[in-house]
Design goal:
heterodimer, A: alpha/beta, 2 domains, six-stranded mixed β-sheet, globular, B: about 290 residues, alpha/beta, Rossmann fold, 10 strands, about 20% strand
């Protein structure tokens, strides 16, 4: 793997340097020397099988590791140049918004709206400003009608939307979604990836999504990171890294379906570049027909 | 009028739902007007989003819920009159999370537990245990603590312990949620093999890639109503229907639909589209169609 070149004008927003981590209860290292830099405005997809270390990695980004999880942490995580060990999770969470896989572990207020107000209020916004932000996110995630409901009474999908709205309402510089869409219906997942792409494009929000949604990551993310057994195996633009599918297959990760198709038709079709979407695959197949 | 096989007495239905309505609270139907039957030897997927009524339907089939109206008959037993323990022998239910199902100290105890509960004689238990461990490739793991296995293997143990009891129907609830690709495949290949051996398999899932690959029939629920019941290809090709249920067909299905005008058939799996495209690219090209002016 090549070292990321560092243009002096743009220091990484998040820099993880040789991070190693072991939970208090785990015998083996869960992270075994992970190095990764996130630059402002990137959209990164993090893939890997269950147990690859994706969630653990995400927890290092806003200081929950090492501050809360105990265990043994080595290496360094810098957010905006400052070591997460020297910052509080409260400081960090304003910069790095993390949505967990399990929405229940994130929701604690008495109503959905309060949940979305908590972040903005604790950032020092006025009640009116906080309310405006919360309202906007409730609308975007189509849960405005649930504003007065206690989160505990919601379905799994509604809880996940609430957790996402609450984190988005804090307008973090880095938005991290850790398998946060597992209970959402397919159309909502598609819309949510679209929404992240918009936040990324229009506001410059840095996005990191850990997910099994390979088709969506391949089309939305500018960079794909493959983790396996606590290490990063592959890191680069989807089109560049998916050309060699071996590491993904070896790690037990599914390929986007059009990528698998392109591979199967490699002898027959002269792909100008690896197709990542059905539109791209369609275009080349039609051209080959002529 | 369509002839109803039930009234002709030729049906081999193993599960029947007749005009089923269910309400958790009076006035709010979680499920209504469901008429449905599953024949012996089917591999059918039940799809729909959260809140569609999928889980309710599943609980009605296993007898954990009884219909507010109508009836559910499983292998000849009306669920309203039957004990859950009786139904449990007819329908094997595999939980979404294998940790909810595993409680024994070893793989073999886990598999033998249900057999002992059935009150089978010791030699029969012994025989079935060995056959099941063999069938599922668990002989080498028989002494291991189930909770230390990989998630995929845990699920395999769950299925083995259920299949050992020889239910008529195997119901898998979201078997691939939280599983990675490799484990998902392992479970679904296993379900397919059991189905080929004659087991009726019902798959409750929201993963349409797996549905397209493995199911032969698909039932779509939306808002408590059965909105579609048909062969997998027909359901997958109906983009309007799927969209109205907030579902999205797999990428390869969407691509094959875009290429339909070239004469390529609908593909449910990537290898199918690759084969069709290859044959089409190699084969004699159809002459450009001439349309009458």
């Amino acid at each position: 793997m090549s070292e990321a070149e560092e243009p002096p004008a743009d220091p990484p927003l998040v820099a993880v340097r040789d991070a190693r981590y072991r939970y208090p209860t785990s015998q083996d290292w869960v992270l075994r020397g992970v190095s990764l830099e996130l630059r402002r405005g990137e959209f990164v997809g993090l893939v890997g099988t269950t147990g690859a270390g994706k969630s653990t990695f995400c927890l290092t980004l806003n200081g929950l590791i090492p501050h809360y999880a105990g265990g043994t942490f080595e290496g360094q995580v810098l957010v905006d140049g400052r070591d997460t060990r020297e910052l509080t999770v409260a400081d960090l969470s304003a910069r790095v918004g993390l949505v967990f896989q399990d929405a229940d572990s994130q929701l604690m207020m008495s109503t959905v709206e309060e949940e979305c107000l908590l972040g903005p209020l604790s950032q020092g916004l006025s009640r009116a400003e906080a309310r405006a932000r919360a309202r906007q996110m409730l609308d975007v995630l189509e849960i405005a009608h649930l504003a007065g409901r206690p989160p505990q009474t919601l379905s799994g999908g509604q809880k996940q939307r609430t957790a996402i709205a609450a984190v988005m309402a804090t307008e973090p510089e880095v938005l991290v979604l850790d398998e946060a869409t597992s209970e959402l219906d397919a159309l909502t997942v598609h819309r949510l990836f679209g929404l992240c792409a918009r936040l990324n494009r229009e506001r410059g929000t840095t996005i990191l999504i850990a997910s099994h949604e390979m088709e969506l990551l391949a089309t939305h993310a500018g960079r794909l990171v493959l983790m396996s057994e606590g290490r990063i195996l592959v890191d680069g633009p989807p089109r560049a890294v998916l050309v060699d599918s071996t590491p993904f297959r070896d790690a037990g990760v599914r390929l986007p379906q059009v990528v698998e198709l392109a591979e199967r038709l490699a002898g027959e079709v002269d792909w100008p570049e690896l197709p990542l979407s059905e539109e791209e695959a369609e275009h080349t197949l039609r051209a080959s027909a002529r | 009028m369509r002839l109803d096989p039930r009234t002709l007495g030729v049906s081999d239905a193993v599960v029947q739902l007749e005009n089923v309505r269910f309400a958790y609270r009076a006035g709010v139907d979680a499920l209504r007007d469901v008429d449905l039957q599953f024949e012996r030897g089917e591999l059918t997927a039940l799809i729909g989003n959260n809140g569609s009524g999928k889980s309710t339907l599943m609980k009605l089939i296993v007898g954990l819920l009884k219909p507010t109206e109508g009836r559910v008959v499983v292998d000849g037993a009306d669920t309203r009159g039957a004990k859950v323990s009786t139904l449990a022998q007819k329908i094997g239910f595999i939980f979404q999370n294998p940790n909810d199902q595993l409680f024994s100290n070893s793989v073999e105890e886990e598999v033998a537990f249900g057999l002992r509960n059935l009150g089978l004689p010791p030699d029969e238990i012994e025989w079935r245990l060995e056959a099941t461990l063999e069938q599922f490739g668990l002989v080498d793991q028989r002494g291991l603590f189930p909770r230390f296995l990989s998630r995929g293997d845990k699920q395999k143990v769950c299925i083995a312990s259920i299949v050992a009891m020889r239910p008529s129907v195997l119901l898998l609830d979201e078997p691939t949620t939280g599983q990675d690709h490799r484990d998902s495949r392992q479970i679904l290949e296993l379900a397919t093999r059991l189905n080929e051996g004659g087991m009726t398999v019902l798959l409750v899932t929201h993963d349409l890639i797996n549905v397209a690959e493995y199911a032969r029939r698909v039932i779509v629920l939306n808002d408590g109503v059965l909105v579609r019941d048909g062969p997998t290809a027909d359901v997958m090709a109906d983009e309007a229907l799927l969209a109205s249920c907030s579902l999205v067909a797999p990428q390869i299905v969407r691509l094959s639909l875009r290429l339909a005008d070239l004469g390529l058939p609908l593909a449910l799996r990537t290898p199918d589209l690759a084969d069709a495209a290859r044959a089409w690219l190699r084969g004699p090209r159809p002459v450009s169609p001439i349309y009458p002016c």
